[in-house]
Structure formats: C-alpha cells, structure tokens
C-alpha cells in the first residue's frame, strides 16, 4: 500500500503543522522590520503598512486554509474584523478570506471510502443506493457528499477528515501562541478571550454524536413548522453523519444575486430561528452564517450544521434583557449604569463613562427604533469601528461580558453579520418581542418611528 499522504487531508504531522503555524508571526515580524527600513528610505508609511497587511493576510489565510480544523475556523472568525478596517485596507483581507472559503483541499475518494468503512462498516455501500464521490460542500474539519439512502431519500453525508482530532488538538496549542496576530486585524481586541472561545467551539464541533442529538432536537421542534425545515438525522456513527438532503437556494447565492424579497425573507426567518428556538427545545443555534442557510422552494428556511449549539436560556436571561433594554432606550445614563453593574457587564470597582455608553448603545440600538430598518454592511461597519476604537475614551473597552452570555453573544454577532450581508429590511423590534414578550412594554414606552430606517451606504 502506498504511504503517500492524501493531498486532500490536512497535514497531520505535528512538527509540520507547528512549523507552518509558527512561521506566521516570524514572517510578520520580518515584514515589520523590512517595512521600517523602507519607511526610513522615504517610502510613504501608508504604502508600507498596506503592503505588510496584504502580505500578512495572504500568508495567514493560505496557511489556515491548508491546515483546516480550528485554524480554518480562526480564518472564518477573522471575517468580522475586516469591518473595523477602512475599505481600501480591508480589501486584501476580503480577497484572502474568500480564497480560504473557496479552496479547501478535497479528500480523494479512497480516503472518503476508508472513513466510511471504518465507521459504517465494511458493507457501508449497502446503506446507499447511490453515493457520489465528488465533494458537494466543504467544512472546516470534513466534507459533505451527496447520496441516495437505501430507502430512496436523498442524503447529505458528512465525513470528518482522518486524524482531524489530533490535528485540532495540536492546533489549539499553537493558536494560543500565535493569537497575538489577531492584532493585525483588530488592534486592542481581547485576543485571549476570542481564542479561548474559538478553541471551545471547534472542540465541540468534533463531536458528531452531540451534533446529531442537537439536530434531532431542532428537527423534532420544526417538524410541523411552516417557516423552518431542519433535515432529519438518518444515521450517525463515529465520524460520519447522514442527514436528509435539502434542496434550496443557498444564502450565499442570495447575498450575491438575490432579490429584495429573498434577502428579507432569509434574514427575518434566520433571526426568528435563532431568537425563538430555545422556547421549544432549550438549545441556542450559535452558527447562523450564510453557508448554513437555504431558502427552500416552499418559502421555508432550511438550516443545516448543528455542531455549534448551546443550552439556553441561562437563569435570569429574560430579566437581564428587559432591564438592559429599558435602561438603554428609556432610562438614561444613571439607569444604564445601574443595569450594567447589576448584570455584570462591568467588573466590581471599575469606573466607566455612563453617558458615553448611553450614546454608543443608542446608536447600536437604532434598528429597533424604527418599525422597519435595513441593516447594511456600511451601518455595521460604523458600529464595529465605534466599539473597537483604540481611543482611551472608548467606553466599550472598559466593559466585560458575563460568561453566561457568551453563547448568545457569538450567535448574535454571526447573525448581525449575516443580516448585513443580506441587507435585510424587517421589523427587528417585533422579532425581539416575539422571543421576549416582556420587551413589548419597553418598546411602547420608547415609541417607535413608523418611517423606515435605511442607513446611507
């Protein structure tokens, strides 16, 4: 048997993976040193900095894309940070990120067949009427194939890369060491917290059994829904997960070329799926990015990939939401400071400018002040720039996030990013009230503008 490594599998040798990752900060330091020399020779600083950023982005995404696992997840997470950069500086990151998302290596058929035999048994082909060796979709730690199940149903077969667990555990160690590179994208970010959250989410997504349980819970809750469709799990053994296939228009295509009705429909239903899901099964769907969403022919929203879910709600969530929103929209600085301290968004004894926070959150809350509002990338960029500014007077840098809110913060950030890509226009206040009815009184007291809110691009 040949000992050559499948070129579609991620590099498994720990020394090789470590060398690739550790080369990133070394190369970055070298570019900075060379850039200092070019500036000393009179080359404009903005040209030198842009060149460093372009080369670093290309190198980072190239390495992360090849390594897959949590490395590729880091590249996906970095997508939101390009919003904090000026448009001309952000361009190289956008191009490199698109390359990362589109160019994941393909597992060769022999490797796929080996994984299926290891986990479904040597007679795995008896479970299928047909199995397509061509990859239908890529994931960070595996890939998806299309097939026909033995009962005639079209299925999606999710197969984990061989050795992915060992590769991910190795990456977790290295990513903690190179996490300071995130400052290239967002100087001053809480890199340690971001990295730890990433590591935990990737480790959870290695558990296909837990993912299958999550998906079954959502599928059962949505079985009679006229708005949502979650594919049924047909089989899960080890590193293989077989689900019903969903035919529909991917949200990624709608972002590129969809009409206004499609954009609004996907965005509105996605928000509803995330915000109301826990009422029926106690789980929060944490990964509402465009690659996991489909607009089905009957108008329902199809949702896939349930590796990133969290138990919900945490105790006191409704009270926290209502009191924070009431303080933001109706209370003023003093009431906002009291709510922030009560619910743990400021460390004990830590001073912060409540008036500045009141102004900042008022701007972020603009979508619910209108009965209809269109969230755009330009609008989101303004909010990201405001909250991540390195000014010493930036009040956001003085606050913290209670640990119990971390899953909802992750889901919300991903959700808002998708809404901005869709440029979705809907009644955001009504969607929030649908999930937390107690907010109705808060918004009534605030008074909402019936005129649509459409930020300038």
Task: Explain the overall architecture.
There is one protein chain. With 457 residues, the chain is of the alpha+beta class. The chain has three domains: 14-103 and 165-203, no CATH class; 109-162 and 206-244, Phosphorylase Kinase, domain 1 (2-Layer Sandwich), CATH 3.30.200; 317-446, no CATH class. It is 53% helix and 12% strand. It is built from 19 helices and 13 strands. The strands form four sheets. Strands 1-2-3-6-5 form a five-stranded antiparallel sheet, with helices on both faces. Strands 4-10-9-7 form a four-stranded mixed sheet. A two-stranded antiparallel ribbon has the order 8-11. Helix 1 runs antiparallel to helix 2 (45-67) and helix 1 runs parallel beside helix 6 (164-178). It is globular. The termini are far apart. The model is unreliable at 1-12 and 185-189 (pLDDT under 50).
């Amino acid at each position: 048997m040949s000992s050559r490594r499948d070129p579609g599998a991620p590099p498994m040798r720990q020394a090789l993976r470590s060398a690739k990752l550790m080369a990133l900060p070394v190369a970055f330091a070298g570019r900075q040193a060379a850039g200092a020399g070019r500036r000393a020779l009179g080359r404009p600083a903005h040209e030198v900095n842009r060149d460093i950023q372009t080369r670093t982005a290309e190198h980072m995404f190239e390495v992360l894309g090849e390594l897959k696992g949590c490395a590729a997840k880091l590249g996906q997470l970095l997508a939101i940070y390009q919003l904090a950069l000026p448009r001309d500086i952000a361009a190289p990151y956008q191009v490199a990120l698109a390359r990362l998302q589109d160019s994941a290596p393909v597992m060769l058929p022999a490797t796929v067949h080996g994984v299926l035999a290891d986990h479904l048994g040597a007679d795995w082909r008896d479970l299928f009427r047909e199995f397509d060796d061509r990859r239908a979709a890529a994931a960070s730690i595996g890939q998806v194939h299309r097939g026909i199940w033995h009962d005639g149903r079209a299925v999606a077969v999710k197969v984990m890369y061989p050795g992915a667990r060992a590769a991910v555990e190795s990456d977790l160690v290295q990513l903690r060491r190179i996490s300071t590179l995130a400052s290239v994208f967002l100087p001053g970010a809480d890199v340690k917290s971001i990295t730890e959250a990433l590591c935990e989410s990737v480790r959870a997504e290695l558990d296909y059994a837990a993912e299958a349980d999550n998906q079954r819970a959502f599928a059962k809750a949505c079985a009679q829904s006229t708005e949502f469709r979650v594919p049924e799990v047909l089989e899960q053994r080890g590193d293989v997960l077989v689900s019903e296939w969903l035919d529909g228009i991917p949200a990624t295509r709608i972002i590129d070329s969809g009409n206004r009705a499609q954009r609004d429909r996907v965005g509105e239903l996605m928000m509803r799926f995330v915000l109301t899901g826990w009422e029926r099964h106690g789980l929060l769907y944490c990964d509402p990015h465009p690659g996991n969403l489909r607009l089905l022919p009957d108008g329902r929203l199809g949702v896939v990939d349930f590796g990133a879910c969290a138990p919900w709600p945490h105790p006191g969530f409704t009270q926290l939401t209502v009191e924070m929103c009431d303080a933001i929209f109706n209370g003023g600085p003093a009431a906002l400071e009291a709510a922030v301290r009560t619910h743990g968004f400021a460390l004990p004894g830590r001073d912060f400018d409540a008036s500045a926070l009141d102004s900042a959150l008022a701007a972020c809350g603009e979508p619910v002040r209108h009965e209809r509002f269109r969230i755009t990338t330009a609008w989101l960029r303004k909010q990201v720039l405001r909250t991540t500014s390195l000014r010493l007077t930036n009040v956001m840098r003085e606050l913290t996030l209670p640990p119990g809110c971390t899953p909802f913060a992750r889901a919300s950030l991903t959700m808002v990013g998708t809404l901005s890509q869709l440029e979705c226009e809907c009644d955001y206040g009504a969607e929030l009230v649908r999930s937390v009815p107690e907010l109705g009184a808060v918004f009534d007291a605030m008074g909402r503008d019936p005129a649509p809110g459409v930020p300038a691009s």
